[in-house]
C-alpha cells in the first residue's frame, strides 16, 4: 500500500483543524498557509471529506471548515479509506470489491497478504487525530528557542 499525496494532505488538513478546533470555522487559505499546501489542492480534497461525517463546512463571511467530530473519534485509517479507497495490499483481498483470481483456491501466499492487510488496518485504525496531537505535544513541548 502506498499513500498518495491526497491521503497525506487530507491527514495534515484534519490534524490542523484538530489543533485549531476551538477557533471556530477555519478558512482554507489559513490551513494551506500553515501546512504549506496549495489551496487549490486542498479544494480538491474537501469534497471527499465533506461526504463523510468528519468535516463541517460553513459558507459566507465567517465561513470555513471545522471537525464535525472530536479528534479522539477520527482515525487515520478512516481518513485514508476516504481518500485512498481500500487499505488492502492486493485487489483480491479487498473487502469492498472481492476479486477472485484464477489461482485463489490454490494460492499459497494468500494468508501473507491477508495478514498484512490485518496488521495495516488495525494499526491505522488504532491511531486517532488526538493521538497525533498528543504525540506532537509530547515531542515538541520543550522545543523552544531563546
Q: Can you characterise this structure?
A:
The chain is elongated, with a radius of gyration of 18 Å. The longest helix has 16 residues, at 110-125. With 146 residues, the protein is mainly alpha-helical. The protein contains six helices and two strands, in the order αααββααα. β1 (55-58) and β2 form a beta hairpin. A two-stranded antiparallel sheet has the order 1-2.
Features:
mainly alpha, 2 strands, single chain, 146 residues, 49% helix, 6 helices
Average pLDDT reading: 89
Largest sheet, described in full? Answer: 2 strands, antiparallel
The gross shape turns out to be elongated
Radius of gyration, CA atoms, in whole angstroms? 18 Å
Q: Give the topology string: H per helix, E per strand.
A: HHHEEHHH
Topology:
Blueprint: H1 5-19, H2 28-35, H3 39-50, E1 55-58, E2 64-67, H4 76-84, H5 110-125, H6 129-140
Antiparallel strand pairs: 1-2
Compose a concise summary of this entry.
The protein is mostly helical. The chain has helices at residues 5-19, 28-35, 39-50, 76-84, 110-125, 129-140, and strands spanning 55-58, 64-67. Strand 1 and strand 2 (64-67) form a beta hairpin.
Amino acid at each position: 500500500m502506498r499513500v498518495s499525496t491526497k491521503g497525506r494532505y487530507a491527514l495534515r488538513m484534519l490534524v490542523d483543524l484538530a489543533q485549531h478546533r476551538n477557533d471556530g470555522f477555519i478558512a482554507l487559505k489559513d490551513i494551506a498557509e500553515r501546512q504549506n499546501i496549495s489551496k487549490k489542492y486542498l479544494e480538491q480534497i474537501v469534497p471527499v471529506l465533506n461526504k463523510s461525517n468528519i468535516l463541517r463546512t460553513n459558507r459566507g463571511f465567517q465561513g470555513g471548515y471545522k471537525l464535525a467530530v472530536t479528534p479522539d473519534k477520527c482515525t487515520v485509517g478512516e481518513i485514508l479509506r476516504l481518500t485512498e479507497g481500500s487499505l488492502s495490499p492486493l485487489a483480491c483481498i479487498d473487502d469492498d470489491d472481492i476479486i477472485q483470481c484464477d489461482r485463489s483456491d490454490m494460492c499459497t501466499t494468500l494468508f501473507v497478504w491477508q495478514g498484512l492487510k490485518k496488521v495495516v488496518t488495525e494499526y491505522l485504525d488504532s491511531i486517532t487525530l488526538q493521538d497525533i496531537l498528543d504525540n506532537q505535544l509530547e515531542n515538541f513541548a520543550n522545543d523552544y528557542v531563546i
